[in-house]
Every structure is written in C-alpha cells, then in structure tokens.
Design goal:
CATH topology of the largest domain: FAD/NAD(P)-binding domain
CATH architecture of the largest domain: 3-Layer(bba) Sandwich
Shape: globular
Number of helices: 9
Radius of gyration: 24 Å
CATH superfamily of the largest domain: FAD/NAD(P)-binding domain
Structural class: alpha/beta
Helix content: 10-25%
Bound molecules: flavin-adenine dinucleotide
Strand content: 25-35%
Number of domains: 3
Number of strands: 25
CATH class of the largest domain: Alpha Beta
Oligomer: single chain
Length: about 400
Amino acid sequence: MNHLQEYHEQKKAQNDSNTKRRVVIIGSGIAAVSAAETLRRLNFDGAISIYSESAQLPYERRLLSKQLYHKETQLSLHDAKWYEEKDITLHLKQRVIHIDTKRKELHLANHQLVPYDECIIATGAKAKQPHDFYDYENLLTYRSFEDAVKLSEYAKRNRRCIVVGGGILGLELACLLADAHLEVTLIEQLPSLLAKHMDPAAAHLLHQYLKKEKIHVMLNTQISNLYGISRAEGAELTNKKYINTDFIVYAIGIQADLDFLKNTDIKHDQLIHVDRNMRTSTAHIYACGDAVECEGVHASLWKNAEQQGAIAAMTICNKQQEYENAIQPLLFQHDQFSCFMAGNIRQSDQYIECLDEENSKFEKYTYQNGMCSGALLINRKEQIPYAWNTYQSKAAYPFAGK
Ligand SMILES: Cc1cc2nc3c(=O)[nH]c(=O)nc-3n(C[C@H](O)[C@H](O)[C@H](O)COP(=O)(O)OP(=O)(O)OC[C@H]3O[C@@H](n4cnc5c(N)ncnc54)[C@H](O)[C@@H]3O)c2cc1C
C-alpha cells in the first residue's frame, strides 16, 4: 500500500470508529510537552501525536549549557513509558514540511500526510548562523543535543577556541570551555557583555571574574576574516588583531525556522503571531514557545514556552486562560559568580545601588514613574527573592518625597 492509500484507510477507519478530536503537535521541546501534558491533565480524551524532527526523547534544553558532557537519558523530560501511560504518541525523526490548513493535514518530509482536528505549532528556534558562514567544519553553533555532543568532542581534542557572542549562552559556553582547560577568547561586537542587562559597575565585576577564569574578552569587535584550508585556523578581527584557533562557537542568537509555513494563511514574519490564547490567524492552528511572538513580545525563555504550551492546550479544551507576557528574570551563574537580571536596568528616572567592590558584590534597582522597573544583583544570591518580588510587584521608589 502506498502512503496515500494508507492515509485514506487511516482516515476512513478513524472517521468510522470515533469522532474524538485529534491533536497534532509539531516539535518536541518544552512547549510541545507542556501542551500534551496539559491536554491530558484537562481530561482531553482524543488522540495526541507529537511530530518532531529531533531524534531524542524530549529533553531539558536549558541543561545543555550548564555542563559540557551529557548523557542523553539524564536530560530527558520524561522516559518513554510516561508517554505510553499518557497515551501521547511520539513520532521522532519526522520533519513537517507543510500544513494544508484547508484539508487540515500535515505534510511530512517522508511524504506522509497526517490529518488533524487541532494543530499546535511548537517548533522553537534554531541557532542563528553568521551571514558569511564559511564552509569550515570547525564552525559550531549550539542549540541541540547533537550540538552539545559535537562541542564536547571538539573540547576533548583541542586547545584553543573562540566563542562569538557575549550574551548568556556565550558566557556559559566560554566558562564551560575554560573549565575544560581550553584557551578561550570571547568576542563581543558591542562595548559590553550582556549589553542589554548590564550597568558599568556590574560589567566591571563580570570582567574581573572572567579574567580570573582566564577567559580573554574582546569587546567592540567582530570577526572580519577567517583563514584556513578545510578548517578555520585563524581569525582576523575588525580591531585588526589576529587570533589562532582550533574551533569557533557562535552564540549570536536564535531564529525560528518557519519555511514550512510558506504558502499557508498562518500569519507570520520572523515569528508566528499569536493572541493571548495562543491562537494563530488560522482556525484550529495554535502556536507556542520560541517560535511565537505574543503582542509584540518574543520571550524565548523556558518558563514562557512552558506556560504558552499549557495555554494552547487550555484553549483547545475551552478553558479560557490568557497568557501574561511576564518575562522571566535572567540568570548567569558559574562557580563563584552569579548575576541576576530583571527588567530594564539601563534607563531610569531614579535608582538605588550598592557596590561592595572588595567582595565583588553589587545590587541595583531602577525606577520609572516611581515604580521599580529593573533589578540587578551580582553575587547577592540571597537577595534574589527580594529583588524579584520588588521588580514584579513594581514596588514604589522608597525615598519618594524625602
Ligand atoms: C543551550 C541553551 C540553554 C538555555 N538555557 C536557558 C535557561 O537557563 N533558562 C531559560 O529560561 N531558557 C534557556 N534556554 C532557552 C529555552 O531552552 C527555550 O526557550 C525553550 O527550549 C523553547 O522551547 P520550545 O518548545 O519553544 O522550542 P525548542 O526547545 O526549540 O523545541 C522545538 C522542537 O521542534 C522541532 N522542530 C522544529 N522544526 C520542526 C519541523 N518543521 N518539523 C518537526 N519538528 C520540528 C525541533 O527539532 C525541536 O525539537 C536555553 C536554550 C539553549 C539552546
């Protein structure tokens, strides 16, 4: 029987035997798993199928950058039995290449067609590659379990590396590679690391820490040229310096891969547009996680993806819960150093700050219109609950009128 006949048989059998709804979920990250889990928690008794191009059981992507060497089973969100018990069917190594929203069918890369009643898109994002990505084998990006395995192999076999990108992921990778005794150069094109979240005093403490960890930081610069035959062996920078290297890891952001939405009526540009119930512009299609923008906000954080997945499931079950665009705080932590960042620390009407340079500790709160609009802590972990609460509750500027 060919795929088409098989599909019509399946469809007929399904129509004949039950009228239960079929939910298909594209992707197997936290947004997808949270959606599937919530559907079952709400007693949804139709079929739930997850289609993902990933070969692994859904896993904890956040942990990939918290250590260098991983065992697949230690990262899994649930074991295979959990999916069986919940009657959630996992179709791994299956890439969706198109959604026919009129016929309500997914098209898979293996030419199979999958009918659905409700479809949740949870396809996340891919690591951004530089535009001039050379054809060198030792230029890496970092997003998936496979990327983590590859990086750990490079770390074992080599001595020097460049990490491009001074955001949280770049910092985490630079620290992991330095822990593995590599000579690390961290390159950032902006004048500061964690540029969106830092203040000069905090940036100074961060620099001092990285220097102690023997990470060579270069700001205000980019790679202008790479040299080598089949591998990049040296990088010329826009500041005219030249660095020898054994490999380069790019941590320069993410982008959603939405090619499979071409020729559909699902409204998207770089991201899929959803409302607060995770509905897209097309009936019976929902989207959540790193692939979406909700009212102009792209959260790209774990907890937001998890909440959005749950809300997509609630919408399908007619439980009207709206997503709150509450951006989670950011944390960078390594060994003796911790940095907590929430909200906008760079612009304010008023601020309160306390620097203890001797002990590398710093605390700052910013206020706009009299309300807390940002919090930043360096090496003040014990203050995190207070800082988060002050920021979240938009606490009033304590010295108003004094
Ligand atoms: C190394 C790393 C560390 C991180 N650390 C933190 C952290 O500390 N805190 C935090 O809040 N966030 C962190 N994040 C971000 C967080 O992991 C993401 O926000 C979250 O994983 C997004 O989940 P998602 O389900 O939307 O997408 P993803 O996790 O990206 O999953 C999407 C899945 O869809 C599959 N897919 C894509 N396209 C298709 C297709 N066409 N057909 C079939 N399958 C497809 C992909 O293979 C993938 O498995 C980190 C991210 C990375 C990469």
